[in-house]
Inverse folding.
């Protein structure tokens, strides 16, 4: 019973983190049709940025909105000055370009921060744990999961209720048609990558809150994000969320029952099997549904 | 003698029947026109007949042989070729190389070397009037030129049955005339042709017989004249005119009153 | 609506059909020169040479699927790694090194065969992602492997089993110089044959327009399968040789993405879908690494990333454009390249 509860809370946490991360990744893939291989760099960037701000004396929770804002700007610039130049080319160029930037960022991070894990000291108001049904759940994890859910909810609200969100959805459905109704595609592209980077950065920040940061953090979670994205399909906002839930459960369960390294293997295998059966992911490429 | 015989051809996508129980045949040496309003199933028919997609049910016979299970490249080997509505060139090759690909892998192609195929491609380009573009990129061609190149590519495969998918789209009047002349010459060389088009006068002037599709079903078949005078065909293209006339009259009355 | 392609071919990748191209003679000359060079080369240079040849073999193996095949496959770690692990393990059990090498190659090809059917029919980015996942799944799978005394998560020392431990360092380097040269030469010959033959025409036609290729009598799926298998086999045998050379089989290194991505970058830098492009790319990157010195692996990453970003932006066709002379690299031309694919 305790094990099940442990798995439940771990799944919740992982699903929350993955939901935030996967939403960001799905955005660029779905709207710009670019496989953003520098997404791990965004995640890592967010993680290190928060860590650095905290090391300067900021309260950790305060670093979260700051990091999100900074990553938003970085995403915008990356789109405007880099990815924009390969948008009309073959897909391979976009993949290689983003991979190159990822190499640069991860390389620099390795050089300046070295490969050691950095972790923060949990702020006092989050220290400690609550006893639920016989197991100890750290406050920090509850807070992280809550923040992740809030972010996911905000993103959902943004895409569903705001004009810019609608414009992004329209662009994803049909770029030409969106242009015809007056949507400025370039601005949408910049906005999309910016949001994507912000979400990635947010995921990075939250990762540091419960785990730690290293230059490999992004790569490690990237694989899981890809799994989630493929499972959930590109056509909706709920897809990644469902995918995150599934993958979170799958990985947590496997990690607890068999061992951590098996978790990733199981995730990858699930995706490959799904792709073999449904080449467009579990939820396929349907039109946007809330 | 029917070169191609199609019986009960049906293709369903989920719940929608794009093509429903269509029978048709094309005789040797004939030019058969396939027309119909948008969404009638013409493109699906072409894909089915050339092997791009497989039917839900029905049979396709070519030279009295059941080719329904054959893939598209296998159908090319037995002499079936097609052009595309939106031209599909090989961008990183020259025009003569494009045509040579057809020669290399088509019906007689198995034994042709690259040099032989290229030489044959040049001959064909001379025939169709594209020799000045032979060593240029397909990007240098206009739409008319690209469509002509596609026909040359088909000719290179030594096809006996050619499917021309809206070859006149995007062409001006002169280009249309030249295109029709070329098609007549191709038929003159013994090739049977299925001609899908929207441009009705062209269909009427070129085709021996016409088949009309609407909503996935064959609704008429006959000579061009017979088909255009068919009331079902008119209804399919223009809608139910009697109802429109009545509503129009009603509105006029309302305005005056 | 346009069918989006994965790869747009650089100007230098044309079918050089029967154009009297002298590539064959040049290649033969280069191979002969490389074969006699050891007389003049120091032990260190021999080692560097072997490294170049190994990367050439790998680069051409990826060039087959990514350049000529037009498929952005990230599965190379799976094939390279299988070759390395299988060859290494077999050799540690006493199997003859040559036989073990063959087995490694067969294993890599077999894995390619299994994953070909489901992955090759995936469209767009899904294919890329699937190949990446295959490589990662294999890495984790082998890490967790514990069979017949072999444990995937510990490095396996095979130095004593390859049969070369009695060699002096200079001779050791010389041996692998020639071994890797053989693999590189093999890979170059394969690509040369591809470029000259109908097989190459068929493959590149599939790459350029699969729909049209199928309508013209080319069995597209088969072409993709064959090139996928060939690419895997070449990567597998190179992996085995690499394991012998290092003397150690480490799962994370064998199945890691470091080498694979380096190779892809090299092919892009040099010019994909060409015979000499990958060679240029390999030499360029390895030369830069040498110049940077062995002390800063992280900086090597940064420089590699920078190079590939610059290449993608300013000269996506690759260094091979040098064959058109320096006019392909004037600032005006580079700027025009930059704008070529820019979103409007």
């Amino acid at each position: 019973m305790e094990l099940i509860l442990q798995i439940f809370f771990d799944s919740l946490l992982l699903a929350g983190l993955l939901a935030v991360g996967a939403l960001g990744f799905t955005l660029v893939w779905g709207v710009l049709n670019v496989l953003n291989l520098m997404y791990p760099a965004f995640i890592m960037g967010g993680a290190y940025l928060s860590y650095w701000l905290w090391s300067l004396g900021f309260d950790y929770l305060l670093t979260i909105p700051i990091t999100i804002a900074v990553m938003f700007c970085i995403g915008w610039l990356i789109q405007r000055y880099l990815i924009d130049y390969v948008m009309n080319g073959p897909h391979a160029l976009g993949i290689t370009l983003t991979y190159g930037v990822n190499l640069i960022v991860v390389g620099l991070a390795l050089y300046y921060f070295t490969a050691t894990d950095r972790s923060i000291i949990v702020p006092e108001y989050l220290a400690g744990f609550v006893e639920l049904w016989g197991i100890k759940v750290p406050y920090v994890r509850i807070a992280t999961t809550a923040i992740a859910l809030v972010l996911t909810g905000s993103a959902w609200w943004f895409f569903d209720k705001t004009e810019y969100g609608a414009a992004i959805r329209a662009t994803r459905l049909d770029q030409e048609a969106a242009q015809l109704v007056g949507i400025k595609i370039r601005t949408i592209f910049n906005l999309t990558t910016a949001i994507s980077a912000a979400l990635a950065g947010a995921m990075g920040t939250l990762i540091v809150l419960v785990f730690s940061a290293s230059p490999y953090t992004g790569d490690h979670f990237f694989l899981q994000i890809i799994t989630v994205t493929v499972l959930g399909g590109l056509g909706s906002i709920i897809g990644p969320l469902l995918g995150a839930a599934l993958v979170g459960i799958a990985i947590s369960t496997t990690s607890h029952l068999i061992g951590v390294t098996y978790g990733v293997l199981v995730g990858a295998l699930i995706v490959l099997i799904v792709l073999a059966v449904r080449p467009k992911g579990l939820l396929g490429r349907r039109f946007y549904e809330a | 003698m029917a070169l191609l015989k199609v019986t009960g051809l049906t293709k369903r996508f989920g719940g929608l029947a794009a093509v429903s129980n269509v029978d048709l045949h094309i005789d040797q040496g004939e030019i058969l026109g396939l027309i119909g309003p948008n969404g009638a199933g013409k493109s699906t028919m072409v894909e089915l007949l050339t092997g791009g997609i497989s039917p839900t049910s029905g049979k396709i016979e070519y030279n009295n042989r059941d080719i329904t299970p054959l893939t598209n490249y296998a159908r090319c080997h037995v002499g079936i070729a097609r052009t595309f509505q939106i031209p599909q060139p090989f961008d990183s090759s020259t025009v003569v190389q494009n045509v040579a690909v057809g020669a290399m892998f088509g019906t007689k192609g198995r034994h042709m070397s690259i040099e032989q195929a290229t030489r044959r491609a040049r001959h064909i380009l001379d025939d169709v009037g594209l020799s000045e573009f032979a060593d240029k990129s397909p990007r240098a061609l206009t739409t008319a030129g690209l469509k002509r190149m596609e026909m040359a590519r088909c000719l290179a495969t030594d096809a006996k049955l050619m499917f021309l998918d809206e070859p006149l789209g995007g062409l001006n009047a002169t280009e249309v005339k030249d295109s029709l002349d070329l098609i007549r010459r191709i038929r003159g060389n013994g090739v049977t042709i299925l001609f899908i088009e929207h441009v009705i006068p062209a269909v009427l002037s070129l085709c021996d017989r016409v088949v009309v599709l609407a909503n996935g079903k064959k609704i008429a078949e006959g000579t061009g004249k017979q088909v255009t005078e068919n009331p079902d065909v008119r209804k399919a293209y223009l809608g139910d005119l009697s109802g429109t006339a009545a509503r129009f009259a009603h509105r006029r009355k309302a305005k005056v009153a | 609506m346009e069918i989006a392609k994965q790869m747009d071919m650089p100007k230098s990748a044309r079918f050089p059909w029967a154009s009297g191209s002298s590539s064959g003679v040049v290649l033969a000359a280069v191979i002969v020169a490389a074969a006699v060079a050891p007389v003049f080369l120091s032990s260190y240079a021999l080692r560097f040479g072997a490294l170049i040849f190994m990367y050439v073999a790998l680069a051409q193996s990826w060039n087959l699927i990514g350049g000529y095949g037009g498929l952005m496959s990230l599965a190379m770690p799976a094939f390279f790694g299988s070759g390395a692990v299988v060859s290494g393990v077999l050799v540690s059990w006493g199997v003859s090194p040559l036989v073990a090498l063959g087995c490694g190659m067969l294993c890599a090809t077999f894995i390619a065969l299994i994953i070909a059917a489901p992955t090759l029919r995936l469209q767009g980015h899904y294919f890329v992602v699937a190949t990446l996942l295959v490589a990662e799944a294999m890495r984790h799978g082998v890490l967790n492997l514990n069979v017949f005394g072999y444990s995937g998560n510990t490095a396996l020392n095979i130095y004593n089993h390859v049969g070369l431990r009695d060699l002096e360092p200079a001779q050791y380097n010389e041996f692998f110089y020639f071994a890797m040269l053989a693999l590189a030469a093999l890979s170059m010959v394969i690509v040369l044959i591809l470029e000259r033959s109908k097989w190459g025409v068929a493959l590149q036609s599939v790459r350029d327009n699969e729909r049209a290729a199928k309508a013209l009598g080319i069995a597209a799926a088969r072409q993709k399968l064959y090139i996928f298998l060939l690419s895997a086999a070449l990567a597998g045998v190179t992996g085995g040789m690499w394991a012998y050379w290092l003397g150690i089989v480490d799962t994370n290194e064998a199945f890691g993405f470091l080498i694979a991505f380096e190779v892809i970058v090299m092919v892009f830098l040099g010019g994909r879908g060409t015979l000499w492009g990958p060679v240029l790319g390999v030499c360029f990157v390895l030369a830069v690494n040498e110049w940077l010195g062995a002390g800063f692996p992280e900086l090597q990453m940064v420089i590699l990333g920078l190079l590939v970003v610059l290449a993608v932006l300013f000269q996506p066709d690759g260094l091979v454009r040098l064959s058109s002379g320096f006019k392909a690299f004037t600032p005006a031309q580079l700027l025009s390249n930059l704008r070529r694919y820019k979103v409007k």
Summary: The first strand of chain B starts at residue 2 and ends at 13.
